[in-house]
Write a structure and sequence with these properties.
The protein has 252 residues and is an alpha/beta fold. The protein folds into two domains: 133 residues, 3-Layer(aba) Sandwich (Rossmann fold); 67 residues, no CATH class. It has nine helices and ten strands. The radius of gyration is 19 Å and the shape is globular. The relative contact order is 0.17.
Length: 252
């Protein structure tokens, strides 16, 4: 579990986060949702240490990350897998080399062991046989799956995914949602997904936190979110035609 305890963050005297608290649960897909500019991305960057909080604390399974020195923080960062919005693959490296990259950076395992681990991760995301292709030679959905394979290469305790379905067609997005959900349960990870895609929330969200104006305005699961009674959340949830149809069906 990751505990976010009353964190605040300001930039140039502008408060972006104002006393945010949330529990991100182990073995579940935790969504942080909200409109652009709501503070969800800053919240996430504070959790992983890319921004220092002004006050409050971040606790990883009982370990106070906020007040750790650099060396101890590095040990926790080794336990974190990251799936970036644009996949962030290295164009000059093959699929296999991209997955091996964190292993070469943070472990002392042999080349053969790294290759075996990369192959195992690629098989898990159904990309066996694609090892020697380059990012330019694969589809957007495949790039996301390579990104997931790289994110789990270090067998992380925590997985962070930033808009994992950005730029994908609906069918491929469902594949990515299901893959993230399966891997979370399989490896008992604390998974945190930053998203504004309600389709993904309804597909995979076990534990959801809605950020609005730098605060958590609502927390719950994907069944409760449809009847939250929170006006700001309802406006966010039912912004799309699809979700409006879901609401209409519920009210019949």
């Amino acid at each position: 579990m990751i505990e976010v305890n009353n964190i605040t963050k300001s930039f140039d005297d502008i408060e972006v986060l104002g006393g945010v608290s949330a529990n991100l649960e182990k073995g579940k897909v935790n969504f942080i949702i909200g409109r652009s500019g709501s503070g969800k991305s800053v919240m996430t960057k504070c959790i992983v240490g890319l921004h220092e909080v002004d006050s409050g604390e971040i606790v990883f399974d009982g370990r106070d990350f906020t007040h750790m020195n650099r060396k101890k923080r590095k040990e926790i960062r080794k336990e974190i897998g990251m799936l970036f919005q644009g996949s962030a693959l290295f164009d000059s490296l093959t699929v296999e080399e991209n997955v091996m990259f964190p292993l070469s950076m943070f472990t002392r395992t042999s080349k053969e062991e790294m290759r075996d681990r990369a192959n195992l991760c690629l098989q898990r995301v159904q990309l066996e046989g694609k090892n020697h292709l380059y990012p330019a030679e694969i589809s957007g959905g495949m790039m996301k799956r390579v990104g997931i394979a790289r994110a789990i290469a270090m067998n992380p305790k925590y997985l962070f995914a930033d808009e994992p379905n950005s730029g994908l067609d609906p069918q491929t997005a469902i594949v990515i949602d299901n893959l993230i959900k399966e891997l979370t349960y399989e490896f008992n990870m604390t998974t945190v997904v930053i998203s504004h895609d309600m389709n993904s929330v309804m597909e995979a969200g076990d534990n959801i936190h809605f950020v609005h104006e730098g605060k958590i305005w609502w927390s719950g699961d994907r069944t409760e979110i449809l009847r939250s009674g929170n006006q700001q959340l309802d406006e966010f949830v039912y912004a799309s035609k699809f979700m409006k149809q879901v609401r209409d069906n519920l009210e019949r």
